[in-house]
Amino acid sequence: MEDAEKGSQHHPESVPEMGEDAATSIGPSPPPPAMTEEEQQELQEELVKVEDEIVTLSQVLAAKERHLADIKKQLGITPLNELKHNFTKTWQDVTTSIAYKRTSETLSQAGLKATAAFSTVGSVITKKLEDVRNAPTFKSFEEKVETLKTKMGPSASTGVPAQQDVDVHSTETFISQPDDSAPQEN
Questions:
Q1: What does the alpha-carbon distance between residue 46 and residue 22 come to, in Å, rounded to a whole number?
Q2: From CA 10, how far away is CA 7, in angstroms rounded?
Q3: Alpha carbons 55 and 51: distance in angstroms, whole number
Q4: What's the rounded Cα separation, in Å, for the pair 98 and 93?
């Protein structure tokens, strides 16, 4: 454990941050022996010059950003408009991508196949319903309903039978008649 702590002491404690004064982060370390006082002075001057350029560029960048904001304000470009524009551009990029086109084609083909399958199922159901309607049991039931409807008269649509058209005795007889296909009880 002590070896790990000693090993970490050999590494520099901090790395200078962007914009941090490089001269102060170096500290009082002795200059390399191969460098003369004159070379050191030149490097110090160059260091100050580069730092000044960085400060100047930062100020120029800030001024350019303010100018950009003013231009956008004059044009009526708001952050929301920029967001909409970026979203539209991104969506356009997505829809023109090869992956999107392939996916769209695949889903389109799947939709066509599903439509064909539903059409087939619909045709089968229609045929089965026609078979049921043509069955003798259904025909018999349909005829009895038609007979009852005829006996009930024109007011049957209101749900109240017309008294003069309904023969109560014949309706009871019709309802109590056994169906030919139904099993009869003894």
A1: 12
A2: 6
A3: 6
A4: 10
DSSP letter string over 90-135?
Answer: HHHHHHTSHHHHHHHHHHHHHHHHHHHHHHHHHHHHHHHHHHHHHS
**If pLDDT is split at 50, 70 and 90, which confidence band does 34 have?**
confident
pLDDT (tens digit, 9 = 90+) per residue, 48-107? Answer: 999 999 999 999 999 999 999 999 999 988 888 889 989 999 999 988 899 888 998 999
More confident residue, 148 or 52: 52
What integer best gives the mean pLDDT of the chain? 77
| 38 Rama class: left (phi>0) / alpha (psi -120 to 50) / beta | alpha
First to last CA, the chain: 102
Residues 31-36: contacts with CB under 8 Å, at least 24 apart: none
Specify the pTM: 0.33
Coil, helix or strand at residue 33: coil
Length of the chain: 186
Name the token pair of 29: 């370390």
Asked if 143 and 133 touch (Cβ cutoff 8 Å), the reply is no
Residue pair 174/145 in contact (Cβ under 8 Å)? The answer is: no
